[in-house]
Specification:
Radius of gyration: 21 Å
Number of helices: 15
Bound molecules: pyridoxal-5'-phosphate, zinc ion
Structural class: alpha/beta
Number of strands: 13
């Protein structure tokens, strides 16, 4: 691999454990002192960024992708970016959900609308730019499915060879995406955590560019673009709290990084509370939060939930996720699989957004937060919907069955239609 070209707006990489600083030309992944737990943060020269990125220019920009924030991303200004249209996902106001829950305002940002249908495209786009900057022959990741589909799709858009590790239990739609995009797919006979460890070993042995969450410091940077969009979409007047589902913790850490950037640029004064939602069956952060445990030494928790995208026994972006919640006065909540499944039709009917289980979990978290009085009538709440319902059709079918809805079977005759409607 070749050395990274100097990016003048990136000052350094900083270890979140020991605060040691590294030159991005010397270190690609974690802090050499701390290994896997030594997640690095990208530190910018905000004065230089501010001289290149103006609110006025953003307002006038016709770039409806995440690359409208290129001056605030860890890539060279002249770097070619993948052609897929990633980012600038829609934000919807959901008044019926707000009144049903007794909340001031509810908004839904639909990242199921990304090219490969999940939030992960934001991170994988940066990974592919970095891999090509490094002239990597192969880029690799382990994933519960969506990060894989994202890396696979973005790689396909530029012809970048890649090797993907997913647990064999990954939903079929996600595996189909990988195969269609032409990745080398390794279905690991084990959990996501095992797939992750295997991918790490392979990347090291074969010298592949490694996209893995919590290891690659740049994934947070791609994910932060969602918050930069939220800032623009709300015209600078951010909501009071953001509900976001949490597995490895990279998305919530990314949203916090976006807020940190906005603060450093002087564009916001206060941060919304970031409320992380986990599944009861995979609730590492909720346990750590409630029991005040050290996430660097806490052993893996069980990981068993219908929401496969947030099934992570040992979350890989632990430090950034905990910091996101702590620094914003937020909270970690756990929702049951039944609550997650119920949230799929509730969000679909109330806002017209069809979410996969892990994405609907954000909304399930809002239902619980409203119930517990964590949010209320004075609050404006943003729900991040992180992936499309088409990612996991069997789970959606289970959800509607649980909700007691069934289609009526009719003979192809009008009389049968009348009978069926009368029977409803
Ligand atoms: C990955 C993912 C999440 C969780 O993101 P983390 O960074 O792992 O916390 C939530 N929802 C969906 C749909 C995802 O794919
Ligand atoms: Zn360190």
């Amino acid at each position: 691999m070749i050395p990274t070209p100097t990016l003048d707006h990136v000052l350094r990489l900083e270890c979140l454990v020991c605060r040691e600083q590294y030159d991005p030309a010397d270190v690609d992944y974690v802090c050499p002192e701390h290994g896997a737990v030594g997640t690095l943060d990208v530190v910018y020269d905000y004065e230089l960024v501010a001289s290149r990125l103006k609110r006025r220019d953003l307002r006038d920009s016709h770039d409806t992708t995440m690359w409208r924030y290129k001056a605030l991303l860890p890539v060279h200004p002249d770097a070619a970016v993948p052609p897929l249209s990633i980012g600038w996902t829609p934000l919807y106001r959901a008044d019926r959900l707000a009144s049903a829950l007794g909340i001031g305002e509810v908004w839904v940002k639909d990242d199921g609308r990304q090219p490969t249908a999940s939030f992960k495209d934001r991170a994988s786009a940066v990974a592919v730019v970095k891999a090509r900057e490094r002239r990597a022959e192969i880029v690799t990741t382990a994933s519960t499915g969506n990060a894989a589909a994202a890396l696979s799709g973005v790689s396909a858009s530029v012809g970048q060879p890649n090797v993907i590790f997913v647990p064999e239990s990954a939903p079929q739609a996600k595996v189909a995406q990988l195969l269609a995009f032409g990745s080398t797919v390794l279905l690991v006979e084990g959990s996501y955590d095992q797939a992750f460890d295997l991918c790490m070993e392979a990347a090291e042995r074969f010298g592949w560019y490694n996209r893995n969450t919590g290891v690659n410091p740049y994934m947070t940077e791609g994910k932060k673009t969602a918050m930069l969009e939220v800032f623009e979409q709300f015209e600078g007047d951010l909501p009071d709290a953001v509900m976001v589902s949490v597995g490895d913790g990279c998305i919530i850490g990314g949203l916090h990084k976006g807020l940190t950037d906005l603060t450093a640029l002087g564009w916001i004064e206060a941060m919304p509370r970031l409320i992380g939602v986990q599944a009861e069956g995979s609730s590492f952060f909720v346990q750590a939060w409630e029991n005040n445990e050290n996430v660097l030494t806490k052993p893996a928790a069980p990981a068993d939930t219908v929401a496969d995208s947030i099934s992570a026994g040992l979350p890989r972006d632990r430090i950034k996720a905990m910091k996101a919640v702590r620094d914003t006065g937020g909270e970690f909540l756990a929702v049951s699989d039944a609550e997650i499944l119920a949230a799929i039709p509730a969000l679909a009917r109330g806002a017209g957004v069809f979410a996969e289980p892990a994405a609907a979990a954000s909304y399930a978290g809002l239902v619980q937060a409203a119930d517990r009085g964590i949010v209320g009538a004075d609050d404006r709440i943003l729900v991040m919907s992180t992936g499309s319902g088409l990612k996991d059709v069997p789970a959606a079918m289970e959800a509607v069955e649980e909700a007691g809805v069934e289609p009526a079977r009719v003979k192809p005759e009008l009389g049968a239609v009348e009978e069926a409607l009368a029977a409803r």
